[in-house]
Amino acid sequence: MSEEEKQELNTSMQEFHENPVEFMNSIPPKYDGDVLDSSGASAFHQEDIEQNVHVDARDALRQQTTERDEVAVGRAAFADNDEADGFVDTFRFSGLQSMQDNGLMQASLQECPWSDDYWAFYQGSLGKRYADYSFPNSSDWKKNYDYVQRNPASAILAQGDMNAINCLSPAEKYDILVGDSDYSLTRKMWELGRKYYVRDGHVQAWMGLCHGWAPAAYMLPRPTGTATVLAADGRTYLTFYPSDIKALATLLWAKVKYRSRFIGGRCTDKNPAKDPATGRVLSQICFDTNPGTWHLAVVNQIGVAKRSMVMDATYDYQVWNQPILSYSYRYVNPKTRYYGRSLSQVTVAKDDFTNDRFVQFRSDKTESIVGIEMMVSYVVETSPTHSTVDSPASDQVRTVRYLYDLELDFAGNIIGGEWYQNAHPDFLWTPVQGERIATGAERYISFNEQWQSGQPLTQQWQQSASLAAEYEKAPLAAIVEQLIAFANS
User: Fold this and answer.
1) Separation of alpha carbons 430 and 88, rounded Å
2) Distance, first Cα to last Cα, the chain
3) DSSP per-residue codes, 436-466
4) pLDDT band, residue 72 (cuts 50/70/90)
5) Domain residue ranges of the chain, discontinuous segments joined by +
6) Which of 54-63, 80-89, 160-169, 232-241 is predicted least confidently?
7) How many C-beta atoms surround the C-beta of residue 33 within 10 A?
8) What is the average per-residue pLDDT within 431-459?
């Protein structure tokens, strides 16, 4: 750790101590090589930000996530919806000393979850012709929709211009691949935004499929190249670029139910009561994920199980549902407010912590307290392109800093803690390890009929694909998986 980094940490801790309310309401710094401006572009209008509309957005996404067959979690010193044991794939370490002794103060996944677009509804979701330079890319759903209506995919296909055909949207290519002359999947994609446009006169920019991209990014392999396949008409060869295949994978994981694990409370209060002395949220529900749970989950899932998980981070109106890539943490003495290299230097007995800002909120079982600065790197969205290759070099990664302290019991186990900023991960979730999903229509497929890239799909596969698009608004998992296999062969 450099002297500059030590000084930055020490200064932050001092600022918290001198004015906890102001510091608690500040936004954690983000990094992309340099410090990022947290007031940058947002998917929310300024009026929505002022009215805390992101709370509604977060809750809507949370409900979509927990519609799955959620796996119950255990019960320890935390709330029953905020317990790391039972959430992570492997729960092995519960104390800071054992984490340190096993080299778990930092860890990074060997395989990076892949970046993708969140396929915003106002742009037609997977109906967006992202490679068509004439596509309006307007913030007005109607302008985007009208362009596609004036230039239907069926007419472009009939003209036979392969450049134009390959610039069609992922949904349109999929419909052509499976011989769906009604363009069912494309129609369903535009309907995602239509209902909001009819009701409100606009479609909010934050609405999209990030809840599908985030799990797909580490549950399915990365498509590293293109897949060129023969369409159902037997004469048209379609090129699915990595962005097209990712889009279909994202939609699949957004629409099909699967078993998942979840921790974190559901708060719909846009202005929860706060402690006037510290700025800390008083509502247990709106306190969100406890920092003790957060620390245990990150270390045991990323460091031990070596599999990603999704964190919700809507606090700054810019990102949410991000797959975690890596973490590293350092110690800080919560009493002196200075960085410490060893655990013994920063562990403060509860009774000796005379300047504890959160003394009234501590657990009765707390014996000592340790300050933590954690740097968490997560994958963020990128815009789709016609690049013919995809690798981790194409991904976008952000790093955010969280400050908090951890409460330890007599045995040194983590039993809770306090955030030093109210802007922190609201909830964590992940599909169950090894989960494979499929649409209901796939029961009609005979897997004895292998799909070859130089052959069109069989009638049975075509009909099942149309059923899944019409009634489940999703592509067949078998087609998505095979496209990935073609791309990676």
Assistant:
1) 9
2) 43
3) ----GGGGG--TTSPPPTTSPPPHHHHHHHH
4) very low
5) 3-114+258-431, 121-220+435-480
6) 54-63
7) 6
8) 89
In this prediction, residue 262 carries a pLDDT of 86
The single-letter code of the amino acid at 52 is N
H helix runs in 201-284, sequence order: 210-219, 242-255
Q: Which residue has the tokens 């060997």?
A: 110
Residue 320 in contact with residue 55, Cβ under 8 Å?
Answer: no
Residue 62 contacts residue 330 (beta carbons within 8 Å): no
Cα dihedral 359, 361, 367, 369, rounded to 10, equals -70
Is residue 149 within 8 Å of 141, Cβ to Cβ? no
In angstroms, the CA 196 to CA 203 distance is 6
What's the whole-model pTM score?
0.91
The answer to whether 410 touches 416, Cβ cutoff 8 Å, is no
- What tens digit of pLDDT does each residue of 157-189 get? 999 999 999 999 999 999 999 999 999 999 999
Quickly list H helices, 92-241: 96-101, 141-150, 153-159, 162-166, 170-177, 184-200, 210-219
- The answer to whether 297 touches 278, Cβ cutoff 8 Å, is no
Q: What phi and psi values does residue 227 have, to the nearest 5 degrees?
A: -125, 115
Identify the CA nearest to 425 among candidates 268, 257, 290. 290
Assess contact for 440 and 472: CB atoms under 8 A. Answer: yes
Give whole-number Cα distances, 212 to 169, 321, 322, 324, in Å: 18, 9, 11, 15
| Residues linked to residue 404 through DSSP beta bridges, in sequence order | 372, 419
Structure tokens at 102: 């096993």
Nearest-angstrom CA–CA distance, 276 and 21: 7
218 in Cβ contact with 430 (< 8 Å): no
Q: What is the DSSP letter of 301?
A: I
As a three-state string, the secondary structure of 51-120 is CCCHHHHHHHHHHHHHCCEEECCCCCCCCCCCCCCCCCCCCCCCEHHHHHHCCCCEEECCCCCCCCCCCC
Q: Nearest-CA neighbor of 178 among 480, 486, 472?
A: 480
Say if residue 317's pLDDT is above 50.
Answer: no
pLDDT at 458 over 70: yes
Give me the numbers of helices (H) and strands (E) for the chain, helices first please.
16, 15
pLDDT tens, residue by residue, 178-226 = 999 999 999 999 999 999 999 999 998 888 998 999 999 999 999 999 9
| Among candidate residues 323, 413, 324, the one with its CA nearest the CA of residue 374 | 324
Amino acid at 213: W
